[in-house]
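Hey, I'm writing a tutorial for new members on how sequence and structure tokens pair up, and I'd like a real worked example in the thread rather than a made-up one. If someone can provide the structure for the chain below, I'll link this post from the tutorial.
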Amino acid sequence: MAVATPQPETLSGNARRRTRERAVHIIVAAAALTSILISFGIVGSLLYRAIEFMIGLANPGAVDLAEAREGISFANLWSDKWAPRFFDFDIKTLLVGSIVVTIVAMAVAAPIGLGSAIYLSEYANERVRRIVKPILEVLAGIPSVVLGFFALRWIAPNVVGNVFDGADGQSLLAAGLGVGLLTIPLMASISEDAMRSVPHALRMASAGLGARKRTTTLSVVLPAAISGLVAAGIVATSRAIGETMVVFLAAGASGNSALFTVNPLERGSTMTAAMASQASGTDGTISELGFGSLFFVGFVLFVITLTLNLIADRFVRRVREVY
């Protein structure tokens, strides 16, 4: 008995269904395109205003300055303090402050977060994991302003003030510790997911060769999950660099100016805290040039985070193991 061959129009489905599929395709494509356009719009706005700020430094008369003074130049980008009210836009003050806070934060978040991930992935039973992991992730749901007040009112006087004699309560160290607490759940969650994705057969093979649990974890699981662990570290680092409220409250230099310092026990500021301070008007910025520095700092921050993510992506692609 001959079997009828389906015609192309039969395989294409109902016309009404095809219309719905096309409508869904258009809606989803429009959503994707909108997100891309928004991203390009944000970057373009930052770049445009950053270039405008640089032109203003080179030629103060090119922008509307209510109190322009002679001598403004690119040298103002490399002085010894960040004080937009006095036309001092020393970017390295904010850059070094951000680096100090990030190093302190990752010194807290990396070992605690990775240790938590190892315990949840390799040692905790399913019942304990269901209890401990949500409790750990509750920390990620705490608003950053709450952790900022915690760093200001408890970490600064009780940790920094007591451990380091004569240290001022507000400091880059206090801010870094607060940011570290904020970053722990992110580091732990991504690391744990990376370790859990390692095939269980590798663990069984290691145990079959007589390896102990510790040896299996350190010599098999961690190397197999290295791409995910590096990605977790980069994401946590980007989160620490971009944190605002904790540093704004606890670093101590979110007022009129911030002096250049590499000492974590001293007051300082970061790029995000300086932007928040300036945008809120607490630093007394009165010029269009000072307002333009917001976009310049934002663009520098964008370039830093983009570079970190590109490096992480390249490294992950190189070392990723596919099972």
